[in-house]
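[Automated response] Your request has been received and processed.

Submitted sequence:
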Amino acid sequence: TVTVLKFPTAEGAADVLQRVHDLQKQHLIVVHDAATVSWPVGKKSPKTRQLVDLVSAGAVGGMFWGMLFGLIFLTPLFGMAVGAAFGALGGAFRDYGIDDEFIQRIRSQVTEGTSALFLMTSDAVVDRVADAMKDAEFEIIATNLSKEQEQKLREAFGQD
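Generated structure:
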């Protein structure tokens, strides 16, 4: 499952990511890959961080996240050379489900002073994960779930 959460503060994504990491240690969720986007107040553009230290991601995962953030935020993420490579890959990956609507929706919702957490997970014990997140303030802004599955997820997190 791919889920994107938006937080009303620049630090929110990092705080929740630590909770998710703790849940993974308890075998309540499997995190395949994750990344954060934070946009501190007063900064020109958002800062992205792929979290390879928390999950075992391969080169393809790294290229995917880098390309995705390059498409969404139109900023050089890892220098000109890597940014150019991600841009070149962008056209090819659009055929694999990253459509303009998704990119525009994410770009318009991560604004100065906010953050987002991109999670690729599986095998979540939804009620235990929801309980661990009950006091975190976030909004589910994108998933790759069916409408019914997404509605159940939103209900579990009190966002119906």
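Summary generated for your ticket: Confidence is low (pLDDT under 50) at residues 53-59, 76-86, 88-97. The chain has six helices and five strands.
If you did not submit this request, please reply to this message.
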